[in-house]
Amino acid sequence: MFIAQQELQALMEKAKPYAENGNIPDYIPALHEMDENLFGIVIRKDNEIVAAGDADHRFTLQSASKVISLALALMDKGEEVVFKKVGMEPTGDPFNTIQALEEEEPSKPLNPMINAGAIAVTSLIAGSPEEKKRRLLDFVRELADNNKISICEKTAQSEWEHSDLNKALSYFMKSHNVIHGHIDELLDVYIKQCSIQVNCKELARIGSVIGGNGKDPVSGRQLIPPRIAAIIKTFMVTCGMYNASGEFAIRVGIPAKSGVSGALLGAHPNGIGFGIISPPLNEYGNSAAGIKVLEEVSQTYTLSIFS
Ligand code: GLN
After folding, report:
1. Which of 143, 221, 261, 265 lies 20 to 30 Å from 61 when distance is taken between CA atoms?
2. 194 C-beta closer than 6 A to ligand 1
3. For binding substrate, which residues are annotated in this chain's numbering (predicted)?
4. 128-131 long-range contacts, Cβ below 8 Å, gap at least 24?
5. What is d(CA 258, CA 240) in angstroms, rounded to the nearest whole number?
6. Which residues are catalytic?
7. What pLDDT, on the 0 to 100 scale, is given for residue 238?
């Protein structure tokens, strides 16, 4: 491994104060109860892992789940069907933007990383709402290699009770024929997908699968087709940090996806996976200290894919 435990620990200590610049979101009350001092990072390459901080603590994936649902929808329906409903362009708007929905003709969400795009993607996963939920959970379990991974029902319930904006986005899309059917059932799937709980070790393993062309780092089994793993990494670069993706590409240069829980999933094309948690978020809804520690690691070991 390119980094020793003490070195990772030192970079984490350097990034820690950045959490003080962030805030824990309150629009999902259950997330507001997260410990602001929680901080963990795991780096995985093949069978090796290096961990620092709260590497075993469980948290919900939130928007980090959007790359997983996209992989599943692409595996189920193929590129043509998926990209007829969801665009491929960054927005310059926040993750929950409704404005960006009106910008394309015919109206469709600009990309699968903003909420509207992710909800549309979830609607494309094959099966009934119950089957979609089960298949998403099974897929996360397979990628993370832990069949005990579960959904945090408390967080899901809390999000459900405060989901007016996601409902509005969904009804808007339904009226424009982007999605069909029962909105409450679809949002239940989307919210449960966001509420799947992992720890940093599992998140890093998921990152190493996506990074390593879709192959399981241990068995070598192809869990995601290489073409789809490449599409996902590209979206992580162009849209993974929402309207802060450009700055992140310059400072860090590693395909990554954030979640409003403070989760950060990194997938380096050389097969290195990163799983990070630090709940306080910066103004763009990305983990303040999480981004900083990934920047430190990337710059110290020249990991930017553009370097
Ligand atoms: N479940 C959250 C939502 O839909 C995910 C958003 C995020 O992580 N940025 O609002």
Report:
1. 221
2. yes
3. 63, 115, 159, 166, 190, 242, 260
4. 129/182, 129/185, 129/186, 129/188, 129/189
5. 7
6. 63, 66, 190, 242, 260
7. 96
What is the CATH code for 63-194?
A: 3.40.710.10
Please work out whether the CB of residue 285 comes within 6 Å of at least one atom of ligand 1.
yes
Cis bond before residue 106 (omega within 30° of 0): yes
Provide the mean pLDDT of the chain.
96
Name the nearest CA neighbour of 179 among 96, 121, 103: 121
279 alpha carbon to ligand 1 midpoint, in Å? 13
- Does domain 5-59+199-300 fall under CATH 3.40.710.10? My reply is yes
Give mean pLDDT, residues 64-70.
98
Residue 89 counted as an annotated binding residue: no
CA 281 to chain centre: 14
Tokens describing residue 202: 């599992």
Domain boundaries, the chain: 5-59+199-300, 63-194
* Omega before residue 112 within 30° of 0, cis: no
DSSP 50: E
Helix intervals (H) in 100-244: 115-124, 129-144, 153-161, 164-175, 183-194, 200-211, 226-239
Please name the residue ranges forming H helices in 19-152: 29-32, 65-85, 115-124, 129-144
The one-letter code for the residue type at 299 is Q
The CA 8 to ligand 1 mean position distance, Å, reads 29
pTM of this structure: 0.97
Q: Is 260 in the pocket of ligand 1 (CB under 6 A)?
A: yes
Give the DSSP letter of residue 253.
-
To the question of whether residue 260 is assigned a binding role by annotation, the answer is yes
Is 159 labelled as part of a ligand binding site? Answer: yes
| Residue whose tokens read 């982007």 | 178
Closest-CA residue to 129 (of 182, 194, 71, 70): 182
Share of the chain above pLDDT 70, in %: 99
User: What is the rounded radius of gyration, in angstroms, for the C-alpha atoms of the chain?
Assistant: 18
